[in-house]
Design a protein that fits this description.
Number of helices of chain B: 2
Largest sheet of chain A: 5 strands, mixed
CATH topology of chain A: Cytochrome p450
Number of domains of chain B: 1
Number of strands of chain A: 10
Radius of gyration of chain B: 11 Å
Strand content of chain B: 15-25%
Strand order of the largest sheet of chain A: 1-2-8-5-3
Largest sheet of chain B: 2 strands, antiparallel
Oligomer: heterodimer
CATH topology of chain B: Alpha-Beta Plaits
CATH superfamily of chain A: Cytochrome P450
Order of helices and strands of chain B: EHEEHE
Helix content of chain A: 40-55%
CATH architecture of chain B: 2-Layer Sandwich
Structural class of chain A: alpha+beta
Number of helices of chain A: 19
CATH class of chain B: Alpha Beta
Number of strands of chain B: 4
């Protein structure tokens, strides 16, 4: 396999279960140009230097294009305007400073320590209920039974989205998460579908925000919707709300599922966590290194950038392959070994730099409570299939489901 | 117990503030205030803060998570 086609191999669903050997080959060239002109960055040092480089832009999405309707008023007037608005008001993961910083500041001002840490009891009760619901069965389907419903309930709670509406936007959230994958962006049809999905979820959010303004609650969306936020207009507010909702759906799912998969593959570590829940923080940090929920993010070069012996030309797409940096032997001794006792776990599990995951503290709380409870309460858990079936995404990578045979609930 | 934060390394990610809010506080965007001598009873929270730090800037007496190549 030629080096300039390796990233195509990463995207190939056939390699989803174990992309790490491809990452190892990519790391031989820390910044590797691919046939389509993208530069894949795969060593820890190169990723870290680029994460803090202001010449990298996150505004790398192709412009949104609404599909033709046949209605000339829409096709020639309304939709071009809506496209321009959508392009100018993307959610903050696709924005650069200074607008990014303004929007992120508003989110952080609502993502307060008290609000996040106050979810502890709610998460524990949800986990308890979801595990209890498996009583009497001899198998658990982890994604359906816990990894998916838990973060969804928590993000709905935090944002103030009525949980009974969740089935309605379940498919929307999945669709928008798929839109983050690079191959989805190249496919014209997929891009149109993404735009249509965003319109549908935006309409839902607009109506919800109107209700929150009439009757504010103590939730995040009510706080974000306050009118005293210069720099965040209506369209930005909706984009932010959609982003938080989708991010809450699609990432923690992978952290919990990858976590349990890894522990089941390392029964000694599962036993140690069961015996000593205080190990959870170091287990989770090592999981974020070893099997991160998000494998890469893309950027664009705003100027010529020399890094690790290669010059990335202005305008080129850049792939920051976090999961490869996490397994870099130059940085971590025995990187392919899952070892929660390693003292140096400076991972890219939540990215880094100015786009560092806003939800990191919440993800840690959910993963810790869920994994400790699963280890302590599932009797004799064993994997039904290894590797499990994977979802198609190469960036938001995780099992479609994880069948676990159990001898009961403790 | 003794806690030291390498403020040259700290980038203001605020993960410690979520993990141990009684002992770490970020004022503004980048000024970190912290308790250099937290009580032994807080050890669990302090260790969580140390583990959660994306740049490994927190040292706790007896636990060394330092790394070789500081940014």
């Amino acid at each position: 396999m030629p080096e300039d086609a390796l990233f195509a191999e990463v995207l190939d669903p056939g390699n989803r279960a174990d992309p790490y050997p491809i990452y190892a080959r990519l790391r031989r060239t820390p910044v590797a140009r691919q046939r389509d002109g993208a530069y894949v960055v795969s060593t820890h040092a190169a990723i870290r230097s680029l994460l803090f480089d202001p010449r990298l832009s996150s505004e790398d999405l192709p412009p949104s294009r609404r599909p033709r309707t046949g209605n000339p008023l829409k096709d020639w007037l309304l939709n071009p305007i809506r496209n321009r608005v959508a392009n100018a008001h993307r959610p903050l993961i696709f924005r650069d400073p200074p607008e990014h910083d303004t929007l992120r500041g508003f989110v952080m001002s609502e993502f307060t320590i008290a609000r996040v840490n106050g979810l502890h009891g709610r998460v524990a009760a949800l986990v308890d209920g979801l595990i209890e619901a498996c009583r009497g069965r001899d198998t658990v389907c982890l994604v359906d039974d816990l990894s998916y419903p838990l973060p969804v309930a928590v993000i709905c709670d935090l944002l103030g989205v009525p949980e009974q509406d969740e089935p309605q936007f379940h498919a929307w959230a999945t669709r928008l998460a798929t839109a983050l994958e690079p191959d989805a962006r190249r496919d014209e049809e997929a891009r149109r579908e993404t735009v249509a999905t965003f319109d549908a979820i935006a309409d839902y959010m607009r109506a919800l925000i109107r209700r929150k303004r009439r009757q504010p609650g103590d939730d995040m969306l009510s706080g974000l919707a306050r009118r005293d936020r210069p720099g965040m207009g209506e369209v930005d507010l909706i984009a932010t709300a959609v982003l938080l909702l989708v991010a809450g759906h699609e990432t923690t799912v992978n952290l919990i599922t990858n976590g349990m998969l890894t522990l089941l593959r390392h029964p000694d570590e599962l036993g140690r966590l069961r015996a000593d829940p205080e190990r959870a923080p170091q287990v989770i940090e090592e999981l974020l290194r070893y099997e991160p929920p998000v494998h890469f993010r893309t950027r664009k070069a705003l100027g010529d950038i020399a890094v690790a012996g290669t010059t990335i030309p202005k305008g080129a797409p850049i792939v920051l392959l976090f999961a490869a940096g996490n397994r870099d032997p130059e940085r971590f001794p025995e990187p392919d070994r899952f070892d929660p006792d390693r003292t140096d776990i400076q991972h890219f599990g939540f990215g880094g730099g100015l786009h560092y995951c806003v939800g990191a503290p919440l993800a840690r709380i959910e993963a810790e409570i869920a994994l400790v409870a699963l280890c302590r309460r599932l009797r004799d858990p064993r994997l039904l299939a290894d590797p499990p079936p994977y979802r198609p995404g190469a960036s938001l990578r995780g099992p479609e489901n994880l069948g676990i045979r159990i001898g009961g609930i403790l | 117990m003794r806690v030291v934060v390498d403020l040259n390394r700290c980038q203001g990610y605020a993960q410690c503030c979520y993990a141990a809010p009684a002992h770490f506080e970020l004022r503004g965007h980048e000024i970190l205030f912290y308790d250099p001598a937290p009580p032994e009873a807080a050890r669990g929270r302090i260790e969580r803060a140390q583990q959660a730090c994306p740049v490994r800037a927190i040292s706790v007496e007896g636990i060394d998570l330092a790394e070789e190549d500081a940014p």
